[in-house]
# Entry
Amino acid sequence: MEPIAIVSAKTSTTRPEVYKDGLDETAIATLEFPGGVFADIKTSYGENINYLNITCQKGEIKVEPYQAYAGVHATSPLGDINFPYQVPWQQAKQMDDDAMAIMNGKSMLVPGEEGLRDIRIVEAVHKAAASGQRVQL
# Structure
């Protein structure tokens, strides 16, 4: 699902000498999704954040590390979940796939429209942080 609103957001920088010219070191936000689903998120250049916790009606799903080339392990109320080894050099593979799609006149694995949707959300987080107001998407 795509979020329908940014309920609240805050950005901060603890090292302004490193993160200059409007670049935020850390962003925290609450996203609202259809059906009354909410996500509290935090991302940071300065902190090592590599986990995902999902609170459900029957308990919590915990994934840590959330992203790892050596595979991912999760615990849930239904038992452990193991995701096998992931694609090494994922970004290089995507760039290679993009180049091949262009050369062969085919669709890209991850089209630009996906990135545009992501940037729309990032911009809404910045707007909510600056205004202190909910931002409808």
